[in-house]
Amino acid sequence: MQSRKENEGYWLMLEKGEEIRATIEKWANGERISGAQVWGIGAVDGAELGYFNINSKKYESRKFPGQHEIVSCTGNINSEGFHAHLSISNGGFSVFGGHLLSAKISVVGEFFVLPTNPLRKIPAPEFGLKKIELY
Question: How many domains does the chain have?
């Protein structure tokens, strides 16, 4: 991964084989960033996406083998790591999306990180999840 500091944030260029969540979390820890908004595009191989089932209060997951374009990746860096949603498209131009569980870059990943004040996750028992607390 390569990174470059900008006036308001950072450009991250992820390379082939790098796992998106792990790479961004490692970089954020190294930069001591505990709050940020993140956007990205690129291409992945072997994505796994999740859907939170509000009734069972559990994530359901689905794997998408093969190469896909990142239509959009948006998320945040918070006290627990990198939380993102990913939309991907295949060669037939079908689009799939959900909570990013894992995905490896297949060509390149271009991400912009805009640091904010620290973001802390707290339990939201009514949903069975954690949510950002604005303090």
Answer: 1
